[in-house]
What we know:
3-stranded antiparallel beta sheet
Amino acid sequence: MSQRIECSRRTCRWTGRESELSEVLDPKYAAKSLTVYNHVCPKCGCDSYYQLPEPKTNKRVKNANELIKVISEHGRKFFEHKGVIATLELDKRGRVWLVDEYTKARVYTHYSGKWSGFHHGGTLRDLVCAMRDYITNGTLIPLDWIAPTRCNPENGDIWGYGKEAAAAVRAAAAQLPIIKQGEQA
């Protein structure tokens, strides 16, 4: 398994493996008829990066990632982009990070301002915050937070899933230990 890396440009923060870096010809050696390649970030072209330790895993992180997987398999397939599914990870300090599926950036979930690299809206951000609280404190998530309905259910759900897909994602999520069950809700 190759080393996990993160682009050193603060505006990019692409996260991946060394094997995923792009190769570009080094212009310093082009005049000398040498073929030398630099490995650069596939998103921004930066040639410097940080090495990341492997994330810590525990039962709560696995449960939260299962919920993300369930959401990515139904309806509009939030948290999924071209076969890549977003993941939550725990660092050695106990902080929760989201690896965004679209930008592939690690997003620090404990920040209260704008999350750079997170491309979803406020409803899904609140859901990620609830998953973060579950990982750190064990706070269960109410089932009503999954494909939430409007005040008048005839107007559809906020995620735009449609009645059948919203019911399917709620039924699948209700089976997970991260969701409040029955009298807990």
